[in-house]
Amino acid sequence: MRGLSGFALQRDMNPLTRTRIRPKHARMRLLSASDFTPARFPVALADDEIHVWLLAADSGPDASRRNESRVRELLAAYLDCAPDAVRLTVGEHGKPFLDAVFPAGTRAFDFNVSHSGGALLVAIARNQEVGVDIETQRRRRPALELARRFFADDEAAALAGLGEAQRQTAFLRLWSCKEAVVKALGIGIGFGLARLQFAIDPAGEPVELSVIHASAGTVEDWHVVRLAPTGAHVGALAWRGPARRVRTFAAASDRT
Fold first, then answer.
1. Structure pTM?
2. pLDDT digit string (tens) for 135-189?
3. CA atoms within a 13 Å half-sphere pointing along the CA-CB vector of 138
4. Which of 48, 113, 165, 225 is close enough to 237 for a disulfide, judged by CB 3.0 to 4.6 Å?
């Protein structure tokens, strides 16, 4: 949820501790703004689905509380309970979870949240840990400096070969894919963003997860879906496990 802040990473450059995959590991696709269907929550969640909701995020001194309230309203709708009955807890690395207490007859589900530049993304799934990230393109970052410091060498080199404007967007696409994966792990960027690597095409688009540290499984285990929920945002959804149907929605009153 914190986005591009709070770097505390270590790089693992030993290739013997990283898991590689054969070429053509095609598990990435792009869902754009037109794929986010206006809807009111909740929408029935099947066991083999992941729902991703786009909501408007608040800003200002009390934004954190108001944004948490919006997330609680969404979760409460799925749990069929009052928002103040939604109990949240935080894992060791800061990832939020639903508490173990649920209304009678309701199965547990996992969720993840990210916000940036006035947009809020929430991913929900049953019996499946998920990670989601969103980044605004309205603010410029020192993309090449950050890539050389925190990304794999091949990724930094690919970004260095792009023009400045293209590099900004490519950096954010790559960052969001990496952050979605480490959030699905429940660890966050402290896992080390150089411990997972994406192949990047000549246009700067991440096209496949090609390397991941062995402690996170194999690349065959992972699914990463790129998101472009608005014209001003890029993002990604990631999970480790069986294939699932991804359904994306824009809260009817919150179109960003």
1. 0.86
2. 999 888 999 999 999 999 999 999 999 999 899 999 999 999 999 999 999 988 8
3. 10
4. 225
Q: State whether the Cα torsion 228-205-137-63 is positive or negative.
A: positive
Which residues does residue 117 pair with via DSSP β-bridges, in sequence order? none
Strand partners, 240: 222
Nearest 5°: CA angle at 110, between 70 and 175? Answer: 80
The one-letter amino acid at 219: V
| pLDDT per residue as tens digits for the range 109-140 | 899 999 999 999 999 999 999 999 999 998 88
CA distances from 49 to 26, 33, 111, 189 (A): 20, 19, 12, 26
Ranges of beta strands (E only) in 128-215 are 130-136, 196-200, 206-213
Looking at the structure of the chain, the number of domains it has is 1
Choose among 243, 1, 246: nearest CA to 121: 1
- DSSP assigned state of 139: S
Is residue 8 in a domain?
A: no
Q: What is the CATH number of the domain that holds 213?
A: 3.90.470.20
Q: Which helix (H) or strand (E) holds 155?
A: helix 153-160
